[in-house]
Amino acid sequence: MKEHIADRKRCLPETGLYCLTAEALSCGRGNIEVVRKMIAGGVKIIQYREKEKSGLEKYKECMEIREMTRAAGVTFIVNDDVGLAQMVKADGVHVGQDDTPVEAIRALVGDEMILGLSTHAPEEARRAQASGLVDYIGVGPIYSTQTKKDVCDPVGYDYLEYVVEHMAIPFVAIGGIKIHNLHEITSRGAGCIAMVSEITAADDIEAKIKTANQKIGETYIKRS
């Protein structure tokens, strides 16, 4: 049986929607309003990802989001900024391949904080799992996406299928995933699905989340 050696207490839920903020893609709504609707819709994981705001703006927003997520029992992840994640007492931090090394982050945050790492190829997944320091990996972008600057080319289904077949580490499928292609992802063994603009730009965020979670529950094929 495959086993991931990181502390299982820090793992994300195996199935469900993983939502990210994107104020520029929120149809004029602010992050706080969008996050409030995400929580009302039943999301259990929210990542704060804002690159263009000032440090003060990000701190104020994250403090408010931390209070909302704590009250609702929602896991709160901060993208890239380890210091911000620590200051607001987030549940975790998510970094990319070119960010601070996971060894340095784990040494800084200790054993309690969830650590996620974006990966785009089998060797990156293998390194993350072998390190024993990473709690989950992002797998993608599955499809082309414009929600993030300097994003790499789509990895397609091959890399997703590799992770499902060979990796024990928990993972989140991400990148261009919408309601209409969700079945292609869940039927290949992905249960935790990240969506950005599909949620933030929805006319009815709560209804879109409920539809997505229902479809994940109906079509997810669990990894062996």
Describe this structure in a few short sentences:
The chain has 224 residues and is α/β, with parallel strands linked by helices.
What labels describe this entry?
single chain, 224 residues, alpha/beta, eight-stranded parallel sheet, 9 helices, globular
Shape: globular
Strand order of the largest sheet: 7-6-5-4-3-2-1-8
Number of strands: 8
The count of helical stretches stands at: 9
Cα gyration radius (Å): 16 Å
Task: Give the end-to-end Cα distance, rounded to a whole number of Å.
Answer: 9 Å
Classify the beta-strand content into a percent band. Answer: 15-25%
Q: From N to C, what is the helix and strand string?
A: EHEHEHEHEHEHEHEHH
Arithmetic mean pLDDT? 93
For the sheet with most strands, the description reads:
8 strands, parallel
**Unreliable parts:** 1-6
Bin the helical content.
25-40%
Overall structural class, as computed from helix and strand content, comes to alpha/beta
Written account of the structure:
The structure is a single chain. The protein is an alpha/beta fold. The protein contains nine helices and eight strands. 39% of the residues lie in helices and 16% in strands. Strands 7-6-5-4-3-2-1-8 form an eight-stranded parallel beta sheet. The protein is globular. The N terminus is likely disordered.
